[in-house]
Amino acid sequence: MSETRTSGLEIGLNAAIVAVRGDVPLILTVAGEGAGDVALPFGPFDPIRHRTLEIGLRSWVEAQTALRLGHVEQLYTFGDRGRYARAGDVGPHVVSVGYLALTRIAARPDGPEGAVTASQDVLAGAGAAFRPWYDHFPWEDWRHGRPTVVDEAILPALRAWVAEAPEDADPTRAIGRAERLRLFFGTDGAPFDEEKVLERYELLYEAGLVEEARRDRQAAGQTTCAPALPGLGRAMRFDHRRILATAISRLRAKLKYRPVVFELMPEAFTLTELQHTVEAISGRHLHKQNFRRLVETAALVEATGETSLATGGRPASLYRFRREVLRERPAPGLRLGTRA
Amino acid sequence: MSETRTSGLEIGLNAAIVAVRGDVPLILTVAGEGAGDVALPFGPFDPIRHRTLEIGLRSWVEAQTALRLGHVEQLYTFGDRGRYARAGDVGPHVVSVGYLALTRIAARPDGPEGAVTASQDVLAGAGAAFRPWYDHFPWEDWRHGRPTVVDEAILPALRAWVAEAPEDADPTRAIGRAERLRLFFGTDGAPFDEEKVLERYELLYEAGLVEEARRDRQAAGQTTCAPALPGLGRAMRFDHRRILATAISRLRAKLKYRPVVFELMPEAFTLTELQHTVEAISGRHLHKQNFRRLVETAALVEATGETSLATGGRPASLYRFRREVLRERPAPGLRLGTRA
DNA sequence: TCAAAAGTGTTATCCTTACACCCATGT
DNA sequence: ACATGGGTGTAAGGATAACACTTTTGA
Hints:
The structure is a homodimer.
Chain A: E1 9-21, E2 24-31, E3 38-39, E4 42-44, H1 53-65, E5 69-78, E6 93-103, H2 118-125, E7 128-132, H3 148-164, H4 177-185, H5 197-206, H6 211-219, H7 240-254, E8 269-270, H8 271-282, H9 288-297, E9 301-308, E10 316-321, H10 325-328
Parallel strand pairs in A: 1-6
Antiparallel strand pairs in A: 1-2, 1-4, 2-3, 2-7, 5-6, 8-10, 9-10
Chain B binds a DNA duplex (27 and 27 nucleotides) through helix 9.
């Protein structure tokens, strides 16, 4: 599952494969070359064997991981390997196409983090594992309010970086450092937009605070590279964390107009489980009553008639996704407002 | 500006370059090989000379057309050349990355359609020309109500196609022919969604109504290929019309949350001109008063103090884009509702 | 004076947000 | 009985959609 190289131009497919277990959004990772090196699963595109990029992606993912992919969506095509790419890192030239894919794993937390299901056994053999995506983006989990790492580490560091050059040197850039900080992190009265995951990551990269920035600059021969800020999550290989940021952004946006959550849910679920899944992905706390009315008025689910006893309180009605909405409404999703 | 071919895998960049003149949205096209063959401008990506795909795109576009591109955005990467691709059509394997780019041309209709501006002279030399995009998508212009071609040609033909197999044979497809017709074309009480340009085109393709479908199926060796329905606009080379459909979809969506219209407007403009440009792109008629309030409350523009006398009636105040909104609001766009 | 297009004021309706409260189960 | 989470009704505020009307120019 590591990059192969041939001469000439090559197309690589990178997959951000997402699942949710309980309240934890997970991303499938593979072990990189060095110790502690974590990467997204990667496969070459062979145009002879596969008619389209998506078919090629599904093919190697399903062969190597025994996972059944639900929704699959192209994210972005990168022609470069990070902005400060090392020559010789990969074959001469790899253009990589990023994909987001959703899959279902054993739904409930049935043991410690290390517990594996049948499909995960297969993965473990290849050095692959689902890991919580907030391990890589601790500043993106706002379910319990603004994360402490934002106030204690990120904002002070970014404010210092803003102070270095409040108005950006680059004249092609539409807005300066100060405004980007304000808009992307929701400071100084600006509303926080949970969809701007990529913007936040790129700001942290540009400010040199994430490990990848330090690594890339060092490789590019820059002498003065400050150490990365601690607490900013686990780095990934190449620009994989940027791809993951793109995936999270896209998924958080898509939730609102397409019923993609249900690709991550078991067949039957309670409304609270559904809410927790949406909260896990969007990184926001939602208002219970409003969420329920939203789901109800959107007619996204129907009661199965069963109830779940595993709640710890009053038993909850079980629901299933109402597939018919796809035929009825043009954009069926959870049109979350600013609060719920 | 035509496809070159070498051995091995190659990356091509296709650009949908959009401008607006008066009430007419335009797309830059180049002459293909055969007579009447129209294509999107195409250029190879050379990873040695250009660090990123976007830099590569801007480079050959600006070199060949003397156009200054504003907003540039990646659309989609296609690994195949149409679903019924002919072998040997292009070099062994070309993966093409589609881009949307916006540019400004002489704003007002200053003569017949053939009139050229300075930059268009350069284009004419390369066989390139801006042409109205609704030439390729006559069913997408709903500014004066539902287009006649929809009622007279498309709906009857699609209903016949639905009657052939109301429930789709393909079980992986979420919704059947009947529902797709209803949702994508807004029949039987479903609301019309002007953003579903790609979905509509693909439906017409699948139903075998557009010229490209006939061409591709014939090339794939299908014996029974009904002639394409007349009146369904000018076909394009390869899958370029699909790329253009993607571009229009994306632009219509983006209008609503990013101030991209202004990339197509001259420095100063009247509110009616702005409205007409938005209507031209979105293909919808907008309610004047509501549009004006929208622009005003969103604080997207500011008066220049000048007035325009070229209105044919009462002179109109001139406005310019208020760049500061980029710093103030997180998603500044024309949040068009269902009516305005 | 009339046509043509600019520009304004106001109301009914729906959707979003937020509040406070009741219900059914396990311990 | 009480803790825990499931589940509901309803009112305030704001945004949207639609109405009809006045103003300023050129011909």
